[in-house]
Amino acid sequence: MSEFKTSILCIGAGYVGGPTMAVIAKNCPDIKVTVSDINQTRIDAWNSDELPIYEPGLDEVVREARGRNLFFTTDIDGEIPKSDIIFVSVNTPTKTFGRGAGKAADLQFWEKVARNIKDHAVKDTIVVEKSTLPVRTAEAISRILHSGPSDVHFEVLSNPEFLAEGTAVHDLENPDRVLIGGGEDERGQAAIQALVEVYAAWVPREQILTTNVWSAELSKLTANAFLAQRISSINAISALCEATEADVDEVARAIGSDSRIGPKFLRSSVGFGGSCFKKDILNLVYLCEHYGLDEVAAYWEQVVHMNEYQMSRFVEKVVTGSFNTIVGKRLALFGFAFKANTGDTRESPAITVTRRLLNERASVVITDPKAIPEAKHDLADVIDQVEFCEDPYEAANGAHAICVMTEWDLYKDLDYQRIFDSMMKPASIYDGRNILDHAALAEIGFNVYPIGKRALVNS
Ligand code: NAD
Ligand code: UGA
Fold first, then answer.
1. Residues 404 and 411: beta-carbon distance below 8 Å
2. What is the rounded end-to-end Cα distance, in angstroms, of the chain?
3. Ligand 1, from 21, 79, 90, 115: best to mutate by most atoms within 8 Å of Cβ?
4. Quick one: average pLDDT of 183-196?
5. What distance in Å separates the CA atoms of residue 127 and residue 83, rounded to the nearest whole number?
């Protein structure tokens, strides 16, 4: 007899699978949680002191549970038959080929996993969609799981994840809600209850929402679309602010004080990045087109277009502010991660900006406290044209301009007088995150170009 009341397996040990399972294991010592992946290097890292992803607070959570009721392995086939609940948290990138290329979700990894579960399960099992998936995927998954001769029954639930990177542990420990969608028959409801009991160990029951499976699947895509839409909306207004001398932060504060609008996610920026916003909106667009809802598709696609426009506007500003040429000029990018407190650079605006600056033949130097290895990987094809350095002072030394790409706290507290003294003149700062003290920088002598605010130009 196992000493644990339930065995959970998670397939996919990435940004979602690893932290989510670590928090379940920490809060449910009577449940055995095994996290698996095909990537041996990733699993080795989860078993070491150097975890494969950086998340504040994650080391402590993993240290507490690992070896007690949290295990990491590549033996997926060996674990499937022992598991009562199997979460699947593999990647679901945008398709790059064939039908729906550039928009639809690529479900090949998911299908492989479903077939694997079907082949190795020996008892009734709950299969949980943790990855973000197109609405109605559970139907296809269930058909795959039940194909062929077997008495094993699978109940498919949708339990999308809403954590944000950089605050994953906090978000998992204190979620606004946990969403569980499942079948409306008796078996479906029993499976939902089994998963509710897992989360109820630390999440208040009134925050655990249960729905039908399609609503849960669609709510995840919709949540990301709404969040990204807010950023594109405030970024659209930032362009108008620059044209009219309104200040985007003042506008955001004014509208955000309306309790119907609320203050969050109104920080104007060089654009949103991250592995999911663009991917999930394009997936939503594809679904709308599939159902013949072309106006709805066009409405959501505009959120992505606006984001691209914001990145283009930023580069345009750098070139115009540099007397219309940046050929051979040293430009220091402060930050490369798609947001602060993560080493993740997937879809980071810094990638687009770097490539466009290189196109203009600038000499680009990149600094970031966590993301330099990823930056080197993202820019592998142009690596000989880019310099990387850990130290922001060294990056700025001899530069014509600094471009703030990521809102790392450390950039707020640098000695900007020292930086100014080491730079070419006129020295400029393009603050793509509006995190610096613009008046103080202008006082030192910088030309300062924020987002959605009047530029402060000395020379
Ligand atoms: P990730 O790329 O970090 O991790 C996915 C893992 O799945 C990889 O380690 C990969 O090796 C593994 N994998 C792929 N195929 C496999 C297979 N056949 N068997 C076993 N392992 C396999 O991705 P992620 O960021 O964790 O995202 C996973 C899903 O969660 C995506 O659908 C994403 O949209 C969604 N999501 C991500 C976030 C986030 O903040 N990153 C938040 C919410 C939801
Ligand atoms: C986002 C969502 O916030 C999560 O709820 C969701 O689970 C996740 O996507 C996902 O499905 O992957 P994440 O991408 O990790 O999380 O980070 P966010 O904090 O949402 O930031 C996304 C991007 O928007 C970053 O580039 C950030 O800098 C930018 N942003 C955010 C702004 O430009 N302005 C803002 O006001 C907020």
1. yes
2. 77
3. 90
4. 97
5. 10
In angstroms, the CA 47 to CA 452 distance is 45
pLDDT, tens digit (0-9, with 9 covering 90-100), for 287-310: 999 999 999 999 999 999 999 999
Inform me whether the pLDDT recorded for 277 exceeds 80: yes
* CA nearest neighbour of 402 among 424, 386, 383: 424
Report the alpha-carbon distance of residue 180 to residue 192 in Å, rounded: 7
Q: Which ligand has the nearest atom to the CA of 132?
A: 1
| Cβ atoms of 65 and 34 closer than 8 Å | no
Kindly report the protein residue whose alpha carbon is nearest to atom 34 of ligand 2.
267
Query: How far, in Å, is the centroid of ligand 1 from the Cα of 110?
Result: 10
Phi and psi at residue 182, in whole multiples of 5°?
-155, 180
Checking if the pLDDT of 138 tops 70, the result is yes
**Which ligand neighbours the alpha carbon of 129 most closely?**
1
- Nearest alpha-carbon partner for 254 in 234, 225, 274: 234
